[in-house]
Amino acid sequence: MNSARGQQVRAEEIYRWGPTWSRHIGRILDFGYYRTRVVGRERIPASGPLIVAANHVGIMDGPIVHGALPRGSHFIVKQEFFDSALGFLMTWAGQIPVDRSSGSAALRVALTLLDEGRVVGIFPEGTRGRGDVQTVHAGVAWLALRSGAPIVPTAVLGTRRPGDKRSHVPRFRAPLHVEFGEPIVPDVAGAKGRQATSLAMEQIGAGLAAHVKSVSRATGIALPER
Question: What pTM value is reported for the model?
Answer without folding.
Answer: 0.95
